[in-house]
Each structure stands twice: as structure tokens, then as C-alpha cells.
Amino acid sequence: GEHGFVCYHRGSNLLDSNRSVYDVFHISFSDGAYQIRGQGGKFWYVASSGSVCSDGDLSEDFFFEFRERGRVAIKGKNGRYLRGDPAGTLRADSESVLRA
């Protein structure tokens, strides 16, 4: 995409954003929210630090907001939008879509 892809951070449970390569994730919809599952059936979740991790045993709800021109904003259950930080780590710590 225009701003890159999401992939696993090698050797870690974190996810990277704004990359030239991507990994495939499975998305399920239930009760108005989405659950995101990756390798080995593990789920995405938002850690207390705000980092999005990929090794959860239980599903966690994420909320998709479909925007103009095919864009999607994703909000974690902590009420914050997902964004890539300056180092590329995917985090759920933005209060608005404009800052994500």
C-alpha cells in the first residue's frame, strides 16, 4: 500500500508497520467487532504499553472504521487508533485518525 504493509517483527511478538513486505492475517467478525489471528492461530492484542502484539491465546476486539478511498482505520479495545511509530512498531496509542 501507499504507506506500506504490516508484518511480524522477527524474533518478537510485536508487529511492524510501513514495511515493503507483508504477512497474511485472518480476520473474523463477531458482535460488531473484528478479531485478528496470525501464525499458529495466535491473536492480536493491545499490551498495556500500547504495542500491538501477535501472540495472544484469546481473541481481542478491534473496531474497523471504513474511510474514503478504500482506507481503513483500526481502533483497539483501549479506544485508541493503531499507527506505526517512528521505528515502525505497530501501536494502539493515537487519539485520532488524523494522528494515526
From TrEMBL:
Keyword Methyltransferase (UniProt): no
Highest taxon of source: Eukaryota
Keywords annotated in UniProt: Actin-binding, Cytoplasm
Membrane spanning residue stretches: none
Main localization, broad class: cytoplasm
GO CC annotation terms, alphabetical: cytoplasm
GO molecular function: actin filament binding; protein-macromolecule adaptor activity
Annotated compartments: Cytoplasm
Domain Fascin-like: 3-97
Name under which the protein is recorded: Fascin-2
Organism lineage string: Eukaryota, Metazoa, Chordata, Craniata, Vertebrata
